[in-house]
Amino acid sequence: MQGYESIFVLDPNATDEVQTSLLDKFRGIVQGQGGKVVQHAKWGRRKLAYEVKKRSHGIYHLFYIDHAPKAVKALESQLRLEESVLKWMSVAVEDVEAEHAAFEKLRTQGSLSQTLTER
């Protein structure tokens, strides 16, 4: 299934409750525009390559969204307005399930497994 991969970095000081409310809000925006969040992956707290808004760490989240360009545009508009969001990026992918499977394989067996399990 064609779709989009949307990654966003939240403020490291955001509590679990704030994160949950933001994620629910973002899912609601996507669903309100006729889209669907197929998969959600939480990468957790990671060091940023460079400081963003005076923060050196961030909490990474990844949404795989079905083929709904209006939903992605609405999501990006909201991400731009949220103060707790440090950075975001969305890209089109050919096959959402294949991209998620490749990510999971890297996370569990590849080079990401060592860095993610150490944290």
Protein architecture, described:
With 119 residues, the protein is α+β, with helices and mostly antiparallel strands. It has one domain (3-118): Ribosomal protein S6/Translation elongation factor EF1B (Alpha-Beta Plaits). The chain is built from 4 helices and 4 strands. It has helices at 16-32, 69-81, 96-109, 111-118; strands spanning 3-10, 37-52, 55-66, 85-93. Strands 2-3-1-4 form a 4-stranded antiparallel sheet, sandwiched between helices. The mean pLDDT is 86.
Summarize the topology.
Elements: E1 3-10, H1 16-32, E2 37-52, E3 55-66, H2 69-81, E4 85-93, H3 96-109, H4 111-118
Antiparallel strand pairs: 1-3, 1-4, 2-3
Helix pairs in contact: 1-2, 3-4
Biggest β-sheet strands, sense, barrel: 4 strands, antiparallel
Number of strands: 4
Number of domains: 1
The portion of residues assigned to helices is 40-55%
Low-confidence stretches: none
CATH C-level label = Alpha Beta
Could you tell me the strand content as a percent range? 35-45%
Number of helices: 4
State the order of secondary-structure elements, H for helix, E for strand. EHEEHEHH
In terms of structural class, how would the helical and strand content be classed?
alpha+beta
Oligomer: single chain
Question: For the record, what is the CATH homologous superfamily label?
Answer: Ribosomal protein S6/Translation elongation factor EF1B
